[in-house]
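Hi there. Long-time user, first ticket. I'm pasting a complex I've been working with (about 1188 residues overall). I'd like to know whether the download I got is complete or cut off, because the file seemed smaller than I expected. Thanks.
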Amino acid sequence: MAVLVSTTVNGDPVEFACPEDETLLDSLRNRAGLTGVKEGCGTGDCGACSITLDGRLICSCLVLGVEANGREVGTVEGLSDGSNLHPLQEQFIEHAALQCGVCTPGFLVAANALLTRNPDPDEQEIRYALAGNLCRCTGYDKIVRAVQAAAAEMRG
Amino acid sequence: MQHDTSFTDQAFKVVGTRVNRPDGVDKVTGRARYGADAFAPGQLVGLVLRSPHAHATIKSIDTSAAEALPGVKAVLTADDLPENETNKGMMDILENCMARGRALYDGHAVAAVAAIDNQTARKALKLIKVDYELLPHVTDVDAAMQPGAPIVQPTVLDRETKEPTNVSRVSEFGHGDIDAGFAEADVIVEKSYKTEQTHQGYIEPHACLASLGPDGSGEMWVTTQGHFVFRNICAALLGLDIAKLKVTASEIGGGFGGKTHVWAEPLALAMSRKCNRPVKLVMTRDEVFRATGPTCSTSVDVKIGAKKDGTITAAYAALRYQNGAFQATWGMLGAMTSFACYDLANVKTVGYDVIVNRPKVAAYRAPSAPMAAFGVESTMDLVAAEIGMDAVDFRIKNAAKEGTRASYGPTYGPIGIGPTLDAAKNHAHMKAPLGKNQGRGMACGFWFNFGGQTCTDINIGIDGSITLTVGTVDVGGSRASLSLIAAEELGVAYETIKASVADTTSLGHNDMTEGSRGTFSSGMATIFAARNTIEVLKERAAKMWDIPVEEVAWEDGEASPVGDQHSNLTPLSLKEIAAKSPNTGGPIAGHNEVVADGAGVSFASHICDVEVDPETGSTRVIRYTVIQDAGKAIHPDYVEGQFQGGAAQGIGWALNEEYIYGDDGTLQNAGFLDYRIPVCSDLPFIDTQILEIPNPNHPYGVRGVGETSIVPPLAAIGNAVSNAAGVRMTHVPMSPPRILKAIEDAS
Amino acid sequence: MRFESPTTTQEAAALLAGESGSAHVLAGGTDLLVRMKAGMTEPDLVVDIKRIPSMQGIETSDSGCRIGAAVSGAEMNESDALKSLWPGVVEATNLIGSDQIQGRATMAGNLCNGSPAADSVPAMIAASAEVQIVGPAGSRTAPVQDIVTGPGQLSLAKGEVIEAITLPARGAGGGDAYLRFIPRTEMDIAVVSAGINLTVDGGTITSARVCLGAVAPTAVLVPDGAAAIVGSKLDDAALAALAAACSAACNPIDDKRGTIEYRTKVAGVLAKRAALIAFERAGGA
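Hi, the file is complete. Here it is re-exported in full:
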């Protein structure tokens, strides 16, 4: 029996009905039209489904859709401010920190969570904070450089 | 029109600059649409039932309860996929997509359902009753070659004995006389190696949305490395006309060769046709590991003999590759690549292709080369040590060069192995000090690279902006490189060009993005399509000026009149000509179809530092350098990206990645938790050095670059571990328990 | 499947007790949803504990700490007070998975999943942590080491749910540490692990608790290992005896993550290294 979920996504009210055993990842993709979150594994090992829930970085494949009731969800679609890209988004493009790009939304959400709690991370702190996001294309080199550049830009 | 594809050694204006890619904004905002990101009205959820057994006869499949479940619209078994005129040469492919009477590996599809939602589809799968009779299985390549091993494909017969065998092919390459060569050697090293099975590990699982009507006409949205080939194969498998199946390539979330084959796509199409509704079929990560196309596991013997002065007198390798449950020639490919880096008078390689109860192997980035290189490059270090020669110098002495007869047959043109070795020798990495428990290793690698069928269109908008339509899927940023090429040829700004990958109704056939051919082939076709466009632009200028077209030249994005008699005429820009196009003959376009030939081989040398914890065997890569010949780096960022990505995959393969099979022949680690690819904190920055030894068969000198970088890491790390911990590892992955055991056995 | 989100512990216990089918507690979901995805678990009832106030929050004082069952590893990492009192317990919990996993995973969930390789458990046992349990029969307290009786098996009765985890008073001269071995740098399940808690006075170890993970069906307290170092200044002989006692206490299996031989050897290595860290934190070095 489907349950009605009332949530806020990227600041906007969103409602959907979903079965109780459906993941928030599937609810966001299939019911809220937000396909920026990706399923890479469905088991919390790859980070491609990363979102924030009440400001906390999590894997949406490990959350039930019904748990989002009354909570705030943040996805990659909420990173830019209208047509102004977030510095992380700009630096990812600038530094060629994406090849196929499927892991990129998850990395951006995770990197933003890192820089929100630690605006001046060193290389190892960046690497460990992003260990939950798998990339198979880049070897992470340009991703780390992009995060360093964005962090510097955001520190002003 | 025959085009001259020779290297022109021109100076470039935009090619070689680091521009932003055209699909960047879509990808960083989540707007880009991948295989699972398409939706159709009335779409059904497709799920596949898979064998839990490594080898079993399927005595019966009862789908009646599943078909009766409300919400189930189609149930599929092999009975729905009959052999016909168009697919009879492709039964291996069809049987791999769905078992025909026998399950050949853990995960082999036996049935499929399409239902109104995921819950119903899952329930339906559980209602399908399959009666299996277990058969003996074999999963190890060496075990499969033993007398008495369970036979996987009984129709494969030994050429001499005519008895069923798991060895489907034996291939031999080489030249000279290795017996004489070994007799001449002062030093001979002989060693055997084993590499475990790995998977391409793309983050995006296979996904498609198929819609096929009862009239044989339909469409499919799919994540693929080659939508034209997928179209041809699916059409043939299902008895459709190619032109009636429109296939659109989604953005692809990684392929590396693993998305060059069909698995679930024909099933989705067949179910869609059966119930006349769109079917969306997305694989789970578990299915991707169990039932797509990993690479081979291997067992390799290498023997190299050399004189005291470092000259290799003979080189031999026997390479045994398992191809999964169907015949293939990956072992042959391994035998071809083994000694490709070296100039050898006497060389022989023998490749064995072996069938086992594992998934059907697919290409994985320079397929078959990494395993052979692990054996050969490890042995090279051993020989160098025996002679007392530096490992790099030993390779430099024996490196292939222009005019060398390659061990696999052809004679090389100008190649980069010598230059990459020289660059490695002189690189700062080689001189950096090492700390406690740290060691440095290096290794070389090679890949052939391919050309293939390619079509490209250029269309000029009335405002002078340019559509570049290509048919090769963009796996890593090629749209940027191709736009640079078009901009270079036309003489216009990069920003005025928008490259896109067309669906199969909009262009002629294009081969896959594989074999490192995307930029090489579509780049070549783009060059000639642009030159074709320039001819049209010149004709239009001539018309606008009312002068003969022979008196029009094209330079820097403009038509200019040739000759003093036209000194009153000012040049016309592309934009100006476009604006007048409705009056001068209509839309302006250029086109090229080509079988791009002459792809240049790409060589690399890698340097690697590791630190080994002698009490636990834990091994970290602390510094890594890739030096590779790209011919011409159209977009250096993306060339570096290929170098780094390939190296990272090689590092994962060397240290941690392997398929683990149980005694029952089932895969034990079908997920990213226990199939361990490198995470961000596992790797250092990966330094790159791009060399450019132009490929004489491409106007810009382009060589494919995407694959070579995965070839050297296995041995580079093996050699580094040897120097760090004093143990020679012969079994990949060199996981901590294996390294610790080697350290303890040595002490 | 039914989903309930009670707001009191008693409600949660009653829901669990009253379910005739399979009932599961949902804290972070980092184990439960993985099992559901694999088809290994198909709950009839899921009880979400994250909206229960008495399961929230971290309280620290000189007489001990209380960590609500719904508290995530990320929250624990944000508590400077908890980190300074029990760095070993916090670092053990923080090793579970990625930052994303940390945003949800709880010690109580990690414990109740009953895995022999659970990261937080050896550190909790070494710290003499206890769990506060609420059930149909009322409330009770139990040591953490009594909760898991075998892989995936708990000593909790039907309807019992953990409300909080408590840590004793740290007292002077105390220090704890946790180390695990994994093949990569992150994201792996522990192949073998060691949690050590010491008190040190004047450079000499006065009490110790040594607990190993992933080397037996449940986490293993190693009294011989503790005895090997109590009364010592953690010199090489004491460390060697500790390592030997730990290797001797191992009863591991061969599986896709490690071999018997490997786990047995590395247990001793990790115990030594963890003891040195705990010793330094306790002011010994």
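A couple of notes from our side: The mean pLDDT of chain C is 97. Chain C touches chain B through 20 residues (CB under 8 Å).
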